[in-house]
């Protein structure tokens, strides 16, 4: 019978893995500077310094791009809460602490560059953005009671969650850049997405090593995280509305979640190929298989509903255009 390991045992057993992956990260991560991705020549003073305050007509972003940019930025803004959780569950000792602090420093650049871009280009209302930041950061981020019932946080769980979360934010940033209709914004968010991918590799590899160390325990952790996954930005203002808009417009939807986040992790961790789990792990794996089959059905249902909604909106826009043309 496999014995479950304590959090302290996981940290001790996996420290060499953390050190190896930290060193790999430091070797491949390229230094970059937020100021190089901001078009400063498009900026000017606001009213407090003798200029003009923000007006919606100043923004060159579509409404969808605004929603996606703000959602991504507020997600990045809650970094102090993420750092607290990482420090608590990985510790700030040895290789773990070096990684937590390095990851935090790199993640902080994301919020800096996106906010600078939005303020300089007047892409969104800076006052509304600051108020949303204050509200979101004061709320903080912690696993919900529902999530804690499914899985109590620890180094194994956090590694599995961060793997999916970093992949998800990579997808969201990359697709947001594509719909901004601005090559500077696209290059900026592609740079951010590259960071997210490198961070994902660290967490994914740590969890893979944990899977080899305690197969049943890791199987339960992976399945719990996949089935109960929620984005860390869920507590921000207008989260539900904005996530629906992003899904409707293909920035982050169910198919992308399944095919670009969940299944790559399932394959990398060899969840359905492993032969080292006991009956306990096998039972949990079977439950995951059922969940994934249902998720695929949800994907198809969502896409059918979205196609009908977009068709209705297109027809309505066409009718309105015809009325406007007739009136003129």
Written description of the protein model:
- This protein is an all-alpha fold and 328 residues long.
- Helix content is 73%, strand content 0%.
- The chain is built from twelve helices and no strands.
- The protein has helices spanning 7-28, 63-77, 79-90, 94-121, 126-139, 145-150, 155-178, 183-213, 215-228, 239-248, 254-268, 279-327.
- α1 crosses α4 (94-121) and α3 (79-90) runs antiparallel to α4 (94-121).
- The longest helix has 49 residues, at 279-327.
- The N and C termini lie far apart (80 Å).
- The model has no long low-confidence stretch (mean pLDDT 94).
- Residues 285-320 form a coiled coil.
- It comes from Mycolicibacterium setense.
- Pfam families: FA_desaturase_2 (PF03405).
- Belongs to the fatty acid desaturase type 2 family.
Shape: globular
**Beta strands, count:** 0
Any low-confidence stretches, pLDDT <50, length ≥5?
Answer: none
Radius of gyration, CA atoms, in whole angstroms: 22 Å
Strand-and-helix sequence, N→C?
A: HHHHHHHHHHHH
Q: Determine the structural class based on helices, strands and strand pairing.
A: mainly alpha
Indicate the multimeric state.
Answer: single chain
Helix content: over 70%
Beta-strand level of the residues, as a percent range?
A: under 5%
The total of helices stands at 12
For the residues shown, what is the average pLDDT? 94
Main beta-sheet annotation: none
Query: Gap between N and C termini, in Å?
Result: 80 Å
Keywords: Coiled coil, Fatty acid biosynthesis, Fatty acid metabolism, Iron, Lipid biosynthesis, Lipid metabolism, Metal-binding, Oxidoreductase
Cofactor: Fe(2+)
Family: Belongs to the fatty acid desaturase type 2 family.
Protein name: Acyl-ACP desaturase
């Amino acid at each position: 019978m496999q014995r479950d390991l304590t959090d302290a045992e996981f940290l001790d057993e996996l420290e060499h893995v953390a050190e190896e992956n930290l060193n790999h990260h430091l070797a491949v991560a390229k230094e970059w500077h937020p100021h190089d991705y901001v078009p400063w020549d498009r900026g000017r003073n606001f009213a407090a310094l003798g200029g003009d305050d923000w007006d919606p007509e100043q923004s060159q972003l579509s409404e969808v791009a605004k929603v996606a940019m703000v959602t991504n930025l507020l997600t990045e803004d809650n970094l102090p809460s993420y750092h607290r959780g990482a420090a608590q569950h990985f510790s700030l000792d040895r290789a773990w602490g070096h990684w937590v602090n390095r990851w935090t420093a790199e993640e902080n650049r994301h919020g800096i560059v996106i906010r600078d871009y939005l303020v300089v280009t007047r892409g969104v209302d800076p006052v509304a953005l600051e108020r949303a930041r204050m509200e979101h950061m004061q709320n903080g981020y912690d696993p919900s009671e529902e999530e804690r019932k499914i899985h109590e946080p620890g180094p194994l769980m956090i590694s599995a969650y961060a793997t999916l979360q970093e992949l998800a934010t990579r997808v969201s940033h990359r697709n947001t850049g594509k719909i901004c209709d601005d090559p500077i914004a696209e290059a900026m968010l592609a740079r951010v997405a590259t960071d997210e991918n490198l961070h994902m590799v660290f967490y994914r590899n740590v969890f893979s090593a944990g899977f080899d160390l305690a197969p049943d325990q890791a199987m339960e952790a992976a399945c719990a995280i996949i089935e109960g996954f929620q984005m860390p930005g869920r507590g921000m203002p207008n989260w539900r509305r904005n996530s629906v808009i992003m899904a409707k417009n293909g920035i982050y939807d169910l198919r992308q979640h399944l095919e670009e986040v969940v299944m790559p992790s399932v394959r990398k961790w060899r969840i359905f190929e492993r032969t080292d789990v006991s009956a306990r792990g096998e039972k949990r794996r079977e439950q995951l298989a059922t969940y994934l089959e249902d998720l695929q059905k949800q994907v198809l249902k969502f896409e059918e509903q979205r196609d009908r909604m977009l068709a209705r909106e297109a027809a309505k826009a066409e009718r309105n255009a015809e009325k406007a043309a007739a009136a003129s």
